[in-house]
Write a structure and sequence with these properties.
Elements lengths: L1 H5 L29 H7 L12 E5 L3 E2 L6 E10 L5 E12 L2 E7 L12 E2 L1
């Protein structure tokens, strides 16, 4: 009986078994965790406009993007308007893929960035 049960493990993805008994094939391997501090420091203009004069820039740890093989992180900084008026702290979620910042979005009230821990760059 033990010998029979030992052979009942999950089969590989190419086996002729029902889907629930097959192991899943990973669609794409995860890329290495990016160094968010260095990436933002070197590409600050990908997150903030130069005219906003970002100060006290801080980043959160990178999290695996659940929608793909890339990563997301949160970035916050004190910003100034084009007229020189202080805007206060603004927070953005950045998307990182293949070591590059390819998108950024301002954080909304329900975003998880608001509960992240931040470190200065």
């Amino acid at each position: 009986m033990a010998l029979a049960l030992a052979g009942c493990g999950f089969a590989d993805s190419h086996a002729v078994l029902p889907d629930f008994m097959r192991t899943k094939v990973s669609e794409a391997p995860l890329e290495p965790v990016p160094d968010v501090k260095q990436l933002v420091r070197e590409h600050l203009d990908s997150v903030f406009m130069a005219a906003s004069a970002p100060r006290d820039v801080q980043v959160s740890p990178a999290r695996h993007d659940l929608r793909g093989p890339g990563w997301t992180a949160c970035v916050k900084a004190e910003l100034t308007s084009a007229t020189g008026k202080p805007l206060g702290v603004e927070i953005y979620r950045i998307n990182i893929n293949e070591g590059l910042i390819f998108d950024r979005q301002r954080v909304e009230a329900e975003d998880t960035c608001l509960s992240e821990t931040f470190e200065p760059i």
